[in-house]
Input
Amino acid sequence: MKIKSLKLKDYRNYGLLSLDLDPSTNIFYGNNAQGKTNILESVYVCGTTKSHRGAKDRDLIQFGKEESHIEAVIEKKGTEYQIDIHLKKNSPKGIAVNKIPIRKASELFGIFHIVFFSPEDLNIIKNGPSGRRRFIDLELSQLDKVYLNHLSNYNRIVNQRNHLLKDIHRRENLMETLDIWDLQLMKYGEKIIEERKKFICEVNQIISGIHKKLTGNQEKIELVYEPGTGNISFEESLKKSRERDLRTKSTNVGPHRDDICFMNDGVDLRRFGSQGQQRTAALSLKLSEIEIVRRLIGDTPVLLLDDVLSELDKYRQNYLLESIHDIQTLITCTGVEEFISRRFSVNTIFHVKNGYALKENRRII
Output
């Protein structure tokens, strides 16, 4: 899978930008706050409809403008797709694939597969469970539209159930409707739990070998799925939690409370791992993500590396670069000296400065 070209209009600090991308490695270098990450963010939006930073659509539009446009041409297994994202300040975004508008943003998922790796991802182990759930949901949503539908329905029902729990305190006669929402919650929640369990099993089949290589066969890692329902069924968990739910006016059990434990030879890295161990585990997880996509769709994803090399030591930098030689990669960094010293082949280099990305007539071999 490749992204062949990218065009931006009034996006972030770019008035107009048109890039033809190399099918191998593309370097975007320059000082901080020049717009390097904005380019990667726009590619991410084309695959997921959202910013990896969690920014609202209106924040992606250039200051003083009312609209913004992203156009990406993707090649997937010999077929080209043109993805257009039309961002508007005061109305929902418009999305078109091959110039045909789609009604739901979820219809875009599965066309363009992306793995995004930023310095923040290196903290996925030590930070809270929301980031780990986000990792599972994003990957499964790209790979399985049925899962995306279940997740969307589940999140909608959780919100509606929470509103009901608040309303019950004012109107007790609404209590009898709670069972109906619980049935809907279980319908989608149980399917989400099942798919997440399968996904964790798939990750474990891959991550163990990667992590052994990264640690010189010194560490053995295993992911353990921790469902938000505990060790009992979702139905029983909901019943046990009802009194608490009514008291707190929120839904306290379910997949929206799930977590992943990273075990290293019986040690929980979330609590007892060193910073180095946690970062190595995060790198192993991202490299596993690439391999999972490759196995399940029979193609490689596009890899976006946002200034992540500066956060890794030399050994892990080398391992990462050696692992992505056959994947189209967009890398942001402050300079290209590191690539020259490693003799890492780079076909296309862009110098990013003040909202412009100028292609340089040189290669690194």
User: Anything to note?
Assistant: The domain at 119-298 is CATH 1.20.1050.90 (Glutathione S-transferase Yfyf (Class Pi); Chain A, domain 2). The first strand starts at residue 2 and ends at 11. The chain is about 40% helix and 25% strand. Residues 25 and 329 are 5 Å apart (CA to CA).
